[in-house]
Amino acid sequence: MYDTIVIGGAAASLTAAIYAARRAMKTLVIAKSIGGQAAMTDVIENYPGFLSIGGIPLMNKMLKQAMKAGAEVIYEEVNAIEEIPNGNNGKPLFNVKTVSDNNYKTKTVMLTYGKTPRTLDVPGEGEFGAKGVSYCVTCDGPLFKGKKVVVVGGGNSALEGAEYLSKICPKVYLIHRRDQFRGFEYLVEEVKSRKNVEILYNSVVKEIKGEHIVHSVVVQNVVNNETKEIPVSGVFVEIGSVTKTDFIKHLVKLDQLGQVLTTNNAETYYPDNEKIRPGIFAAGDITQTPFKQIVVSAGEGCKAALQAYNYLAGQHPTFVADWVAKKKH
Ligand code: NAP
Q1: What is the tally of structural domains in the chain?
Q2: Range of the domain at 177
Q3: pTM to 2 decimal places
Q4: Closest CA to ligand 1's atom 2
Q5: CB–CB of 252/277 below 8 Å?
Q6: Which amino acid residue places its CA nearest to atom 21 of ligand 1?
């Protein structure tokens, strides 16, 4: 039985874990991997305390700090949360299930798993995941040095990705479903100026083909319906991100974008009324906060943990200095 289970492995999650464990709460972090969107960022220059640091090193520091504080970390994917009403002296208990069929019981849950890259949902995409299909130019781009690649998308991520890859790849195809980009104008101009970048407007990927690894993509022009097959080794899908809500929508209130609505203290609401939902807290990019920043996620993770502590202790939100609480389990 845990006092709290933190779902996710990036800034909000790891900060929540640091604060919960330092409150002597028995804390389990369940994460598919560590780092989230921050780990996809090469250089971070706006996280206070670091003039410049890579996303992965920053996330690894947070992980180390959470574990030092006493949090347990396991690498699994959560696919269900069951509520056991009144299972904890009038308060609910939760059974957190994972795709590996493991069950973990907890008095509180922290939803801090951010956003997930949007997928193309075309044949071959799943089959060639990590075999040529990538959702992160920053992470995987260097592996494709000297090879022909495709970048899909029309926002800043796709434009930045194409710009970076044009420096290390002989040919970059940028495939966008419309004839106008939605990214910064200076990036659009930069990408257009690269001689080895070919932009295919009004075009969509219909299939990713290969044998063990990616060999080509089939692209269709949505205006004239012409289809062509382009030989490439890498396909970078940079088409934004989505919030996974399938296993939480029966528990908490979401907005139209599927983001979790929270109070100022990281509490959530019941899906069908305005009441605060006991025992479930949320922080970071998964919430309605318009500021999807690492420092904001970390701050919200802190609030979620302290509010969960107050909830378990039967206290109303009050300021309790963190440095007084740490004790060993
Ligand atoms: P985004 O701005 O949401 O753009 C997603 C792009 O993918 C859009 O062009 C969209 O097309 C396209 N798209 C969406 N679904 C698609 C599908 N199923 N098939 C084909 N294309 C699809 O996402 P993002 O580029 O990842 O950026 C996310 C946020 O981070 C944005 O606010 C962005 O400004 C920010 N960002 C900032 C920087 C920076 O400041 N340097 C760098 C990267 C990202 P449509 O245009 O037709 O909708």
Answers
A1: 2
A2: 118-237
A3: 0.77
A4: 155
A5: yes
A6: 153
